[in-house]
Amino acid sequence: MNATDTRNRILMTAMELFWEKGYGSTSIADILSRSQVHSGSLYHFFPGKQDVLVGVLEFYRDGIEDNLLAPNWQGVEDPIDRIFALLAGYRTHLIVTDCTYGCPIGSLALEIHEPDPVVRELMAANFTNWAAAIAGCFDAAADRLPPGSDSQALGEFVLTVMEGAVMQARTYRDIGYFDRNIAVLRDYITALLAPAKRDSFA
Hints:
Shape: elongated
Number of strands: 0
Number of helices: 10
Largest sheet: none
Distance between the termini: 65 Å
Strand content: under 5%
């Protein structure tokens, strides 16, 4: 195994453990045990657990297109449909994990109350990139939205709904909480698009 493979194995293992157990409950020993990597190799790349966290957050930040957006948007052309295709991806993760898997960045943000500035900035960058991707969908559908619509605010709003829906589904272990929130979001966006549709027939 080369250096890149070893580093990636550590990061992938840490990612799994952070969402399964939480950052605080995951130890370096846990990461070493599951990854089957020697401690010397881990400390070569990551001097401490927070450095592993930084690596995980950088992976999420840099991989949003390849690891999150592209798989969920494959074959989906309509920008509004893309929003709900992405949300459906989170729903799938919730279903297959019996509502234990949520948004990993949201989970870390809730758990780590006073993070180091570098950690906080990376969390913020992940949220910013996610909301920006959704804002891009609204931008692509601008001709269907009311004049003056704020795509950035809409992207942030969708992020808020997603995080809240995931949090409730995980808390109650009930996908219904996620589905009801997303259904209300869909109704809202449908209503937002309605004036443009009416105008097109005027």
